């Protein structure tokens, strides 16, 4: 590995995550390890919904009427443009959980470690431009109620936004999620007032309707696509197992819904007033409720949103700026570097705002259009690479290594970007430049479509001989460096009616039956890692995080029956016809229950330290300890008592705990204590192997001996082993399992 690799990429991978909003985020462009992943896919919806609840979104809707469009056609163009822009934006969001990196850093795979500076400069242009409009609009709004020039108050907006960005990811997410409760009701009132009191006028008769609609479409699409350059900055902390469909869907819903709403409101207002000027127009609409409400509405919608959105933009400025600097010279990815990047972005935005013309609608339209021109080729290359060329498989550490597999300059990406941008020039139409093809098309601007097709197509052609397997050695080296599995193990998500279930899988040889591992209560699928690593290389397997555990959903009820249903659903979703089930502790009963319910799915059952009959959940005092010591403290003590043969095994078990709160931990323990496999055992027809530790105190050997005799199964007692054979004796357990599979596969 080259010295160009930032040590912070992996050096902090075992550190505690920065969860408290009062603490400054430690990470910048470096990889987010699994231990620091958190959040839910649906959090993307309120974040991006609030992200559009700003006056600048309303201003986008003013563009159609300014071109002479009727209110209906303007709203139609806004809607289609917003849907198109949000579509591309949402598919970028999926890259965050998969790669655990900021959006523009991911571009190094297509453009090279140094070459990625080109699209990153375009991103900085966007961030600073949007921040400039925040300075202007926020300052104007504050000056409506407080004395002093607007730019003085704009400077205050910059300072507050910079503080938000310095604290970082979690605070920005929290602010935008809760800001909707403040801002959305005001926009609802303004919308109702506009519909009741305003009367849109007919469009002018000499309007070139197709060309005007394209102008409005491009503005709406460009406005939404502008967020694509940092959309995965705010999804990169999500667990890698997060459903792709959920991330894309929630991002799309949140971004498109509020954009369509406010852009349509802007078109409606602009079509109804003699002079379209966003702030005075909105103030006048608000005053229809009562004098002064318009001023209140502007201040309450503009100022908090301007601060929050500028915080988002300055955060993005910092990420791209640090990425560019680190691409040319190794730097420490420290809090100091973050603060410098944020402050520099804020100062730049304020200086540009000083030169902003008072009539900024035309400038805003040209800015949004130029953003589209700059970002369309990048978006096409980035999405084609992720979904068609490399198919989501990247060597993360190589993105920080100039001598790595992606190199300094990504020729294919840079050439595709250049070709796409060059192809767009004849079709561009702005206030300061009109391409030669525009008059021939009646003034229509189709540059964005040309850029998407040419850049995406050129990149595909340039990579027509590429196969993802060629980078597999680099990917495996990266996974080892990051401390993750590198043996063909994949984490997947299966969506169910109660929520997503997370599974670890490894493919086996064609035609072989996989082994399904079910973990003990309050552990996770990773508890089997020392066993699965000792299975034959051709043996495929699936390790499921049961409902309430690991990275699976916490929704629904917890019981042997519900866990068995989840397991059956996962097998069906993964296309598994039959499998061998291995259940540990309480999950032994889950395996037996599934085999009794669905004998067509189960080739054999192996129980490990199984619990087969109900016990009193209060017995042993575990619930009292959970309440007194907290789940991790109580379960750590419990694990130490169970790992009687190999004390170090308790530490391994603690590392695989599901980290639930006390109520969930107790609910799972009660469900485990209620296991009763006697009836299911009577219906068991498949071969079975019963394994138990000689010193098992939680589920004594007598319990397993009774069950083995009841179902006619082979009994294996591991001498000198306690309740956790998967940690205490993984070699012995893997040998028993391998022998069993050879007999019954």
TrEMBL record:
Q: Does the keyword Hydrolase apply?
A: yes
Q: Which Pfam families match?
A: Abhydrolase_1, Transp_cyt_pur
Keywords from the UniProt entry: Hydrolase, Membrane, Transmembrane, Transmembrane helix, Transport
Q: Boundaries of each AB hydrolase-1 domain copy? A: 514-637
Q: Which GO terms describe its molecular function?
A: hydrolase activity
- Chain ranges passing through the membrane: 45-63, 69-91, 111-139, 151-172, 179-198, 210-230, 250-273, 293-316, 337-355, 367-388, 409-428, 440-462
Where it sits in the cell: the answer is:
Membrane
According to Swiss-Prot or TrEMBL, what is its membrane topology? Multi-pass membrane protein
Q: Which family does it belong to?
A: Belongs to the purine-cytosine permease (2.A.39) family.
Q: What is the name attached to this protein's record?
A: Alpha/beta fold hydrolase
* Source taxonomy: Bacteria, Bacillati, Actinomycetota, Actinomycetes, Streptosporangiales
């Amino acid at each position: 590995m080259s010295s160009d690799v930032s040590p912070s990429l992996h050096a902090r991978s075992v550190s505690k995550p920065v969860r408290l909003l009062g603490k400054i985020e430690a990470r910048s462009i470096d990889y987010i390890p699994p231990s620091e992943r958190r959040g839910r896919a649906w959090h993307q919806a309120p974040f991006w919904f609030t992200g559009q609840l700003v006056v600048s979104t309303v201003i986008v809707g003013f563009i159609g009427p300014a071109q002479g469009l009727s209110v209906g056609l303007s709203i139609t163009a806004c809607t289609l443009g917003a849907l198109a822009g949000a579509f591309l934006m949402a598919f970028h969001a999926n890259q965050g959980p998969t790669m655990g990196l900021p959006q523009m850093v991911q571009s190094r795979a297509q453009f090279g470690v140094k070459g990625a500076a080109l699209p990153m400069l375009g991103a900085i242009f966007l961030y600073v431009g949007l921040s400039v409009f925040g300075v202007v609009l926020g300052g104007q709004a504050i000056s409506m109620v407080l004395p002093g020039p607007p730019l003085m108050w704009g400077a205050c907006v910059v300072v507050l936004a910079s503080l938000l960005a310095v604290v970082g990811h979690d605070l920005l997410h929290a602010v935008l999620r809760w800001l909707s409760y403040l801002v959305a009701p005001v926009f609802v009132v303004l919308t109702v007032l506009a519909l009741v009191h305003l009367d849109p006028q007919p469009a002018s008769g000499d309007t070139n309707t197709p060309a005007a609609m394209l102008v409005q479409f491009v503005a709406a699409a460009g406005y939404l696509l502008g967020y694509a350059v940092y959309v995965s900055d705010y999804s990169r902390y999500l667990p890698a197992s997060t459903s792709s469909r959920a991330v894309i869907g929630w991002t799309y819903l949140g971004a498109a819904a509020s954009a369509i709403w406010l852009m349509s409101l802007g078109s409606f207002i602009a079509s109804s007033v003699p002079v379209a000027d966003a702030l005075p127009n909105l103030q006048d609409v608000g005053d229809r409720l009562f004098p002064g409400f318009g001023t209140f509405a502007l201040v309450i919608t503009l100022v908090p949103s301007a601060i929050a959105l500028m915080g988002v933009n300055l955060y993005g400025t910092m990420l791209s700026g640090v990425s560019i600097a680190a691409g040319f010279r190794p730097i420490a990815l420290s809090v100091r570097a973050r603060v410098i990047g944020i402050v520099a972005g804020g100062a730049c935005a304020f200086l540009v705002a000083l030169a902003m013309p008072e009539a900024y609608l035309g400038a805003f339209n040209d800015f949004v259009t130029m953003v589209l021109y700059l970002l369309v080729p990048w978006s096409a290359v980035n999405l084609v690479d992720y979904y068609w060329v490399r198919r989501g498989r990247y060597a993360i550490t190589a993105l920080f290594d100039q001598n790595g597999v992606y190199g300094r300059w990504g020729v294919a990406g840079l050439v595709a970007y250049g070709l796409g941008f060059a192809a767009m020039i004849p079709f561009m139409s702005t206030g300061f430049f009109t391409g030669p093809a525009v008059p021939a098309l009646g003034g229509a601007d189709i540059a964005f479509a040309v850029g998407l097709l040419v850049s995406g197509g050129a990149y595909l052609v340039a990579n027509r001989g590429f196969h993802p397997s060629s980078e597999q050695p680099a990917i495996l080296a990266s996974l080892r460096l990051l401390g993750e599995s590198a043996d063909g193990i994949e984490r997947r998500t299966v969506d169910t009616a109660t929520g997503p279930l997370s599974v670890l899988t490894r493919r086996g040889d064609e035609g072989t039956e996989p082994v399904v591992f079910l973990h003990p209560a309050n552990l996770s699928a990773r508890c089997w890692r020392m066993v699965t690593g000792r299975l034959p290389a051709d043996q495929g397997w699936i390790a499921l995080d049961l409902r309430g555990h690991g990275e699976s959903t916490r929704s629904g009820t917890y019981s042997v029956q519900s866990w068995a249903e989840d397991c059956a659903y996962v097998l069906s979703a993964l296309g598994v016809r039959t499998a061998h089930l291995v259940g540990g502790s309480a999950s032994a009963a889950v395996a037996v229950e599934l085999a009794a319910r669905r004998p067509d799915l189960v080739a054999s059952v192996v129980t490990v330290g199984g619990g087969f009959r109900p016990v009193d959940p209060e017995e042993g005092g575990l619930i009292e300890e959970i309440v007194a010591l907290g789940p991790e403290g109580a379960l750590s003590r419990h694990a130490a008592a169970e790992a009687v043969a190999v004390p170090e095994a308790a530490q391994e078990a603690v590392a695989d705990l599901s980290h639930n709160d006390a109520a969930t931990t107790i609910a799972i323990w009660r469900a485990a204590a209620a296991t009763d496999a006697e009836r299911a055992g009577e219906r068991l027809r498949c071969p079975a192997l019963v394994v138990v530790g000689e010193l098992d105190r939680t589920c004594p050997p007598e319990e397993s001996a009774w069950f083995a005799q009841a179902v006619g199964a082979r009994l294996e007692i591991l001498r000198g082993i306690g309740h956790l054979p998967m940690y205490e004796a993984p070699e012995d357990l893997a040998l028993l399992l391998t022998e069993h599979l050879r007999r019954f596969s």
